[in-house]
Amino acid sequence: MSDQEYAEGRGGLADIVRLVVRTLVYVVLGGASLAAIATVASVLGPTLALDLYTPPVAAWWTVFAAVVVQGVPFLLLGTVVSAAIGALVPERVFSRLLPRNQALAVPVAGAAGAVLPGCECASVPVAGGLMRRGVAPAAALAFLLSAPAINPVVLVATSIAFPGQPLMVAARLVASLATAVVMGWLWARFGREEWLRLPKAPRTGSGTSRAGAFAAGLQHDFLHAGGFLVLGSAAAATFNIAVPRSVLDVFTGSAWLSVALLALLAVVLCVCSEADAFVAASLSGFAPTARLAFMVVGPMVDLKLIALQAGTFGRAFALRFTSATWVVAVVSSVLVGWWLL
C-alpha cells in the first residue's frame, strides 16, 4: 500500500468517525430539546389547551403530522439514494445505461422508476442527483414522475386496496408510465434551459473522501427539500379543514365532473403514493375512472411536490411542468380508464 492510499484510507475513516460523532451529538441535543419542550408542555399545556386545542386546530395538526410523517421516511430514502449517486457512482455509468438519444432514454428512465420503493418526496432529490451527474433532464424528469407511481410497493398497495380488481392495478401502471414518458418527450421537444434551474452540487473541500461527499450531499438535499415538504404539508392540512366533506357529494353524479374533482383533490390532499390507493378505494361513490385519475395525478402533482420542485428546480419550472403534467395525467387516466375499466 502506497503512502497516498494509506493517507486516503485514514482520511475516509476520519470522515466516518466525524459523521458518527456529529450524529450522536445531534441525537443528544435533539433529545434534550424534546425533553425540555415536553416539560414546558406538561406545565403550561392545560392552560394553553383551553385556548388552542379546539377541534379544528386538533384536526389540522393531525392531518399536518400525518402528511409529514408519511413523507419524511421516503424523503430520507430519496436523499440517501441521491447522495449515494453523487458520491459513489461514476458519471460514465449513466452514459452507458441510458441511450444517448433522448427519445429512447426517456422510456428507459421511466421504466427504471420501478426500482425505487418510495413516494414523490423521494423522487425529487434523486432526479436532481441524476441531473448533477449528467443525465439529460428529460430522462431524469421521466424518472421523477414514474418512480412514485409504478414501483412495486405502490402496485401491491393498489392490489390490496382493490381486491379482485387486477385491471385497476394494470390501469394505474399503464396510465402512470404513459404520463411519465409523454412528459419526458414533451420536455425534450419543448423544454428550455432557462426554465430549469439545475440543482447545485453540495460544496465539498478538495480531497474530500467518498464518505465525506456522501455526508455533505445527504445533509444538503435533506435539509433543502425538508423545508418545502413541511410547507406543502401545511397547505394540504389547511385545505382538509377548510373544505367541508359535504361539498364533494355534489360532483359524484357527473362522470366528467368527478374526474376533474378527484384530479384536483389529489393535488391538495397530498396523500403519499403508498397510501392513496386506500383513499381512492374509500371513495366508492365515484366512478372507477375518477378514482384512477386520483391515483395517477396524486404521485405526480400535489402541493408538497410542487413546493419541492419549486425549491429544487425553480418556480418557473414548477409552474409549467406541474400544469402540463396534470393535464397529461388526466387525459391518460381517462383514455386508459375507458380502455381497461
State the end-to-end CA separation: 64 Å
Q: In one word, what is the shape?
A: globular
Number of strands: 0
Low-confidence stretches: none
What's the pLDDT, averaged over the residues?
A: 76
Percent of residues in helices: over 70%
Major β-sheet annotation: none
Q: Rg to the nearest angstrom? A: 22 Å
**Helical/strand content category:** mainly alpha
Q: SSE order, as H and E?
A: HHHHHHHHHHHHHH
Tell me what portion of residues adopts beta-strand conformation: under 5%
- How many helical elements? 14
In terms of topology, how is this protein built?
Layout: H1 3-52, H2 55-88, H3 91-97, H4 102-112, H5 120-132, H6 137-150, H7 152-161, H8 166-190, H9 210-242, H10 255-269, H11 276-282, H12 288-297, H13 303-313, H14 315-340
Model description:
With 341 residues, the protein is an all-alpha fold. The chain contains 14 helices and no strands. The chain has helices at 3-52, 55-88, 91-97, 102-112, 120-132, 137-150, 152-161, 166-190, 210-242, 255-269, 276-282, 288-297, 303-313, 315-340. The chain is globular, with a radius of gyration of 22 Å. It starts with a helix and ends with a helix.
